[in-house]
Amino acid sequence: MKVLVTGVKGQLGYDAVKEFEKRGHTVVGVDVDEMDITDASAVSEVLGKVSPDAVVHCAAWTAVDKAEEFPDKVYEVNALGAKYIAEECKKLGAKMVFVSTDYVFEGTGDKPYGINDERKGLSVYGRTKLAGEDFVTAALDEYYILRITWAFGINGGNFVKTMLRLADSGKSELNVVDDQIGSPTYTRDLASLIGDMIATDKYGVYHATNEGFCSCYEFACEIFRQAGKTVKVNPVTTEEYLKMVPQQAKRPLNSRLDKSALDRAGFKRLPDWRDALSRYLTELDATTK
User: Fold this and answer.
1) Is 164 within 8 Å of 224 (Cβ atoms)?
2) 51, 138, 173, 219: which could form a disulfide with 232 (CB 3.0–4.6 Å)?
3) Catalytic residue set
4) Global pTM?
């Protein structure tokens, strides 16, 4: 199979290329320098030239706070970019994987969101990813939409790296929100699942995160515990944190996702997030030696 992966400079795109190569696929990885997804003609030219069997669309504007300053640009990247790729996949008869987010939901209550629950993004990022989903479903009869949360991988920045950097810079005490609940997602595990998916015709919308739920506070505590770092972590509410660090985008408090669609399709759920974190820290350590 020939697979084109967008956003290869990001966490998931990087791991997806490695995973597909490991499986023996022919992989073409692109980022903005090779294909500007906001340019319909560029998308058409590159996809037409590559003629992939599948496109895994990982490229996105993911700087959630910065997105509030540039809503039009973010819409071009997250919504129109998905539209142009979906339309070209339709022409080519290529499978499409669109990586979406828990931010398409309002994030209230304490029950895991189902794949068909009402979507109501609170932020520019959330609303533009929601629009991207709609463009994909409008253009294609068959697709894979994967909503993920709290991604961390070897290539690029993430919460784990931020916590470790703060600890290594001498921070002995940190305030971390304890009322935002979700599931960390190791992009290496997610890439493996995507590899399994595109080998099938089990199309649909899926929630795909590592197993288990935690707060950002609990996630930080576990990072320091596993990494052997001595840092005092103070639990604070989102409201309290916004007073300390104002002008942030609204984030869902409840990012729990119901992953039963994976079960129904016969896909294996990702390992527990603590296990994923342990393997990630080992991988991270190996890359810094």
Assistant:
1) no
2) 173
3) 125
4) 0.96
